């Protein structure tokens, strides 16, 4: 799996997890969804993604976007 797909998979997991936590634990977990969405938006414009930096250090092979 390339870095691009890994970042997208991680973002998807985080969104689904935050929605589940919002429903079953506390409505304040919706802020995690907001944070993930804002981070995805800023990385689309700037190319800076902290998750991609961490995954790159873990040895995930690079893709075309990150």
UniProtKB/TrEMBL annotation:
The chain crosses the membrane at residues 7-25, 31-54. InterPro entries: YgaP-like_TM. It comes from the Bacteria. It holds the Pfam family YgaP-like_TM. Residues 2-56 form the Inner membrane protein YgaP-like transmembrane domain. The keyword Oxidoreductase does not apply. Keywords: Membrane, Transmembrane, Transmembrane helix. This is DUF2892 domain-containing protein.
